[in-house]
Write a structure and sequence with these properties.
The protein contains 10 helices and 13 strands. The two termini are about 15 Å apart. An 8-stranded mixed beta sheet has the order 2-1-3-4-6-5-7-8, with helices on both faces. About 25% of the residues lie in helices and about 15% in strands. Helix 5 packs across helix 10. The protein folds into 2 domains: about 1-225 and about 355-370, Vaccinia Virus protein VP39 (Rossmann fold), CATH 3.40.50; about 235-350, no CATH class.
Amino acid sequence: MKYLSVCSGIEAASVAWHPLGWEPVAFSEIEKFPSAVLAHHYPAVPNLGDMTQFKEWPDEPVELLVGGTPCQSFSVAGLRKGLEDPRGNLMLTYLAIAQRYRPRWVVWENVPGVLSSNGGRDFGTFLGALGELGYGWAYRVLDAQWFGVAQRRRRVFVVAHLGDAQRAAKVLFERESVQRNPAPSREAREGAAAGVGGGTYLGNAEGGALDAPYLTCSNIQSHVNNQTPLVAQPIAFHAKAQACQLPGLDRDTSISDSLTRSQQAAVAQPVATDIKQVQWASGGGKLENDTAQALRSNAEHNYQFARIAMQVRRLTPVECERLQGFPDGYTNIPWRKSPEAPDGPRYKALGNSMAVPCMAWIGQRIAEVDRGD
């Protein structure tokens, strides 16, 4: 499968789809640090830059178009200008790129706020335009926490196939979706991501609503790079070391101390929250202790933290990479004459990215539909 990725960021799609043998034709990214990450990991793949200049791009056979156009104008936390915001209009640019290259498959991602932006008319415009271009489509809200990462990250995924809505629907939905199975209890599961839970709002190829299907992610790991952790790993410290280092650890917090019989180890649970929630929790509130809040693109100014007992510490970039399903150190590239990248741009790039395990699952499902499985 040859695919074109726009609004590429640090390429969650390529990390997810490399095990499938899929090849990127080109990327489209304008931010300096993500572009440097792409050049570091994919030096042979051209970065075409500004997607609004797509008419000047070379003619290439493209089988799949993937991208998540900027979400700020559709986020419930934003001004909700929708398609009146130039960033929101990149959604229409994305459609124009699909019209030019006519890929068999289209994969588009955005925040759940797009469903209600402008009373739903903005999202309706996108789906209607897909139909006018000859694509059958399906959409669904997927939460990354059900795909093996300890992060709540709900995103809308639209999958479309040229001339065939049924093939698009087969990617996002399963036969089990009509059985109305109850969602698994978080308390009953053994380990992280034992199954995939439902409860999201779904759309089928005709735009109607369905009950959430209940997936299995037992085969996800076989389609993701073996060196890509799907679960944010806990970090162990000696109790004495923890006491003298917290808060604000100066050590390399991505590596645990060895465990010994004489000293009890303290484990930092993979729990993330913004500073307001930390302050609220320290005043007697209670935070859940098994799943992180979603990473955000403004993390360099609004840091996220892990709670250790009654104390907190800032998440490391490696932990943020794990929360998104990237390999350790993926964003730690040479940057501005330094052999390593600073934390700030790494946080921002990871907060803007898609979750790798979600993209791995979608890619796997597309491959199965193409094979006729």
